[in-house]
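Human:
If only I could read backbone structure tokens as easily as an amino acid sequence. I am handing you a single protein, as its sequence and its fold in token form. I hope you can help me see how the letters and the tokens relate. Thank you; the sequence and its tokens follow:
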Amino acid sequence: MKKQQETMKLYGKAGVSPMSGCVPAFLQMPIFYALFMFFPTSFALRQKSFLWADDLSSFDTIYQFPEGFSIPFYGDHVSLFPYFGFGGDFLLYDDDYGTEYANTTWHAQHEIHYVLNAIYDVVFL
């Protein structure tokens, strides 16, 4: 708690807002939204295959649930590309933070980041 107060005093003295770290993320949001809208509607990607995906403008369905069965907020199919992305997230996270901060005060932050990464992966699945 004392460290946080000292950090906030330093921010105030330097004239820096702690929220200024969010500015790059806010600047990138319109670009990511445009990409999110672009890929499913791009004519250049239609009927183009990549690895196991037959059509890059649609889902890379590796398993289709039976007719009429759908998981709420998930859908009626299983796509493999998101799982590879999430697996890469966890591997990179463990590689970056797994051993370096294990015995310091970053341990709690490490656990929170790991949980938030898992929540992020489930939400964007």
About this structure: The radius of gyration is 20 Å. Residues 29 and 62 are 30 Å apart (CA to CA).
